[in-house]
């Protein structure tokens, strides 16, 4: 038997390869063969409200955050533009006006 994935539309097990596509004969859905393998490795990062974050999004800080190594505080409501998602505990990399480059946890921001 083949180890092709089930159809994401109808969950049929009778999928087959057609060139670089995988095809479902029951519902006619087609998708790229390489995207089926990469879906397992993608980590989805969500904000405090459960909205999915993407590179380039604008977010707002939802609570006052102490800045490590400084006596200043990042205030609630601070807008952060053009975020970049990274791996690790602090999964947002950004530049904040008045603070510079900083890493944030996604649980302390909400998407605008």
Automatic annotation (TrEMBL):
Domain Protein YjdM N-terminal: 4-32
InterPro entries in alphabetical order: YjdM, YjdM_C, YjdM_N
Domain of life: Bacteria
A UniProt-annotated Pfam family: YjdM
Residue ranges of every copy of the Protein YjdM C-terminal domain listed in the record: 45-111
NCBIfam families for the chain: phnA (TIGR00686)
Family: Belongs to the YjdM family.
Listed name of the protein: Protein YjdM
């Amino acid at each position: 038997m083949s180890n092709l994935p089930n159809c994401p539309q109808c969950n049929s097990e009778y999928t087959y390869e057609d060139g670089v596509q995988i095809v479902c004969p029951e519902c006619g859905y087609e998708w790229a063969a390489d995207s089926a393998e990469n879906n397992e490795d993608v980590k989805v990062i969500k904000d405090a409200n459960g909205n999915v974050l993407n590179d380039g999004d604008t977010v707002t800080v939802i609570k006052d955050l102490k800045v490590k190594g400084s006596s200043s505080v990042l205030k609630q409501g601070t807008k952060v533009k053009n975020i970049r998602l990274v791996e690790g505990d602090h999964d947002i990399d950004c530049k904040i006006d008045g603070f510079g480059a900083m890493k944030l946890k996604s649980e302390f921001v909400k998407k605008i």
